[in-house]
Amino acid sequence: MLTDGAVGYGRFTAYTRTDRYTGFEFALLPLIHTGDTVNRILGAITAIEPPFWLGAEPLIRQEIVELNLHWPDGVPAFMAPEVAPRS
Fold it and tell me: 3-state SS of the chain?
């Protein structure tokens, strides 16, 4: 379970056994079903420029190219830089 929910998005490259490859982009959306914590994630993936062979050969390996998080309320407290107290 997660208490802070950020939208995840990015890109990855997927490869076939014959070294064909193509790029994908994805989005991961946190959902709250009951209570105050994120307990479900809705995801979507799409090929950026689908090649003719996509679906005919299995994709056996993936490499993340880019991964980003977008926090709905700005940067969460645990990631904010510490501010020295004023005297």
Answer: CECCCCEEEEEEEEEECCCCEEEEEEEEEEECCCCCCECEEEEEEEECCCCCCECCECEEEEEEEEEEEECECECCHHHCCCCCCCC
Question: For the whole model, what pTM was predicted?
Answer: 0.75
**Euclidean distance between CA atoms 3 and 86, whole angstroms:** 31
pLDDT digits (tens, 9 = 90+) for 13-49: 999 999 999 999 999 998 888 877 888 889 999 999 9
Residue 67 to residue 48: CA distance in whole angstroms: 16
